[in-house]
Design brief:
With about 500 residues, this protein is of the alpha/beta class. The chain contains 15 helices and 16 strands. The strands form 4 sheets. Strands 4-11-10-9-8-5-6-7 form an 8-stranded mixed beta sheet, with helices on both faces. Strands 12-13-16-15 form a 4-stranded antiparallel beta sheet. A two-stranded antiparallel ribbon has the order 1-2. Strand 8, helix 9 and strand 9 form a beta-alpha-beta unit. The protein is globular. The C terminus is likely disordered.
């Protein structure tokens, strides 16, 4: 191991080494079972005599903090009668504080292992991913010849940008050439670039209500003033947009989380509004590849003729979330600033993955994978929708949707309190579902359930839905307990 020790002067070197090693063990920086460097090696590194280090080790052994094993070395021991020490952290009482907008913004917590019946929204089925094909493509890019060179273009590999431009032009009607595409670290990376380049502190940003919390929180963290705008059966209400909005974040193909598309009339109105107000429209096309019925919908960017729509795409829902690959289609006027912002921030995404993805798209493997996923998700979508309309009709009212990886249903009665009760009871029964209220910014949020079907296979749906129905029934009974029978009058 690399062990950092600092010696001052030439006096009492044994005691200095002993004290620093002892502190490292007691503070948890050296954990029980870790092997210390051989005395000869550490002595050479510290420019001291080997015997100096050997004596320090002997003192630690006498204190029960170190043990020697013949032919193996010296190992850290748990002090007798002491609990395992916690790792030492940075100074807790430091006077440093974040900017005000960060005081109530927190990173999402790790929710632990998935329950047996996981209806988490926005999670693709990793079991359907073509790992062997992807592994071959990545392996080709890990050869020395492919890894030569310095930093790449912060906008991404030209080959991948060309492949993405061709893919979204065919699949989504996006008007883009390779020069219009920037490769990002997921959709969130694209939104971060947009915010840093376009938003002044205090700028008004309009978001859908309910909507996608990570986007709302990101813009808020950049100092924007957030304006939640209601949606109805036709999508975002353009008539409710604040006049001073500088940017509008919208999910027109599949409103998140309710699921309806933005109607044609609303699209026309939104584009006209943006032109009048000199505003920017950010189109998040997060899972439009999975459409199960109805006519194909043109992207908002494809209908834009004034260059006001920035198109954000993600491969996390199509491939694997862990790949963290997304992209942004932006007009030429913004490209220099976006590239500079990318270079000054996280920089380009890993080059081997970029090159592998370019070949994956060119070989038709992405399109083939999407077709396979679409068939699997269509069957799950139909099964859940039928259950919501039938077995759950007493408690839930599903929102019509023909796209994506989840379905949303409003609670017919009971509000947020019953929503929380259902979710808690379901989780106790091994079923995880999302809360609609958690996706709202309003003081009086809508109540309902969000059921994703990417993380749960078709054969497990029926049992998961049966357990969820039992949770709904139990929550309803708990809100309206049966009245005890009255005894005879005396």
């Amino acid at each position: 191991m690399e062990l950092h020790l600092t010696l001052q002067g030439r006096g009492d070197l044994v005691r200095q080494i002993h004290r620093q090693l002892r502190d490292a063990i007691l503070e948890g920086r050296l954990a029980p079972g870790e092997r210390l460097p051989p005395t000869r090696e550490l002595a050479a590194r510290l420019s001291v005599a080997r015997n100096t280090v050997a004596v320090a080790y002997e003192w630690l052994s006498a204190e029960g903090l170190l043990s020697g094993r013949a032919g193996a070395g010296s190992f850290v021991e748990q002090p007798p009668g002491a609990s395992r020490p916690a790792r030492v952290r940075s100074a807790a009482g430091a006077p440093l504080v974040p900017r005000p907008q960060w005081r109530h913004l927190e990173a999402p917590l790790d929710r632990g292992p998935a329950p047996p019946y996981d209806f988490d929204a926005g999670v693709p089925d990793a079991r359907l991913f073509p790992y062997d094909a992807w592994r071959r493509h990545v392996a080709r890019q890990l050869r020395a010849s492919a890894l030569r060179g310095g930093d790449a273009d912060p906008a991404g590999l030209p080959r991948l940008r060309a492949a993405l431009a061709h893919h979204v032009a065919l699949a989504r009607g996006v008007r883009a050439a390779a020069e219009d595409v920037l490769v990002t670290s997921g959709a969130q990376g694209a939104l971060d670039l947009i915010g840093r380049v376009l938003l002044e502190p205090g700028a008004r940003v309009a978001v859908e209500e309910p909507g996608y919390p990570p986007a709302r929180r990101l813009f808020e963290s950049l100092g924007a003033r957030i304006a939640p705008v209601p949606v109805d059966a036709q999508g975002l209400r353009v008539d409710a947009l604040p006049e001073d909005a500088r940017l509008v974040y919208v999910t027109p193909s599949h409103q998140f989380p309710l699921g309806m598309p933005l109607s044609h009339a609303r699209r026309v109105a939104l584009l006209a509004w943006a032109e009048r107000r000199n505003a920017v429209l950010v189109e998040d096309d997060y899972d439009s590849e999975f459409r199960f019925g109805g006519r194909p919908l043109e992207s908002l960017q494809g209908a834009d003729r004034t260059g006001r729509v920035l198109y954000v795409g993600s491969l996390s829902k199509v491939m694997l979330p862990s790949l963290r690959l997304g992209f942004l289609v932006a007009p030429a006027s913004l490209q220099p600033a976006l590239r500079a912002a990318s270079a000054l921030g996280v920089g380009h995404c890993p080059l081997p993955e970029q090159a592998a993805l370019a070949r994956f798209i060119e070989d038709g493997l992405l399109a083939r994978h999407v077709r396979r996923m679409r068939r699997a998700y269509a069957a799950r979508h139909a099964r859940i929708l039928a259950a919501l309309q039938g077995d759950f009709g007493e408690w839930l009212e599903p929102v019509a949707s023909e796209t994506g990886l989840h379905l949303t249903a409003h609670l017919r009665a009971g509000g947020v309190a019953r929503e929380a009760d259902i979710v808690r009871r379901a989780l106790e029964a091994g079923v995880r579902v999302g809360r609609l209220s958690a996706l709202c910014a309003a003081k009086v949020p809508a109540a309902g359930l969000v059921l994703g079907y990417g993380a749960i296979a078709l054969p497990r749906l029926d049992e998961g839905l049966r357990r969820l129905r039992a949770a709904c029934a139990a929550a309803a009974v708990s809100r309206h307990p049966a009245r005890p029978a009255r005894g005879p009058r005396r």
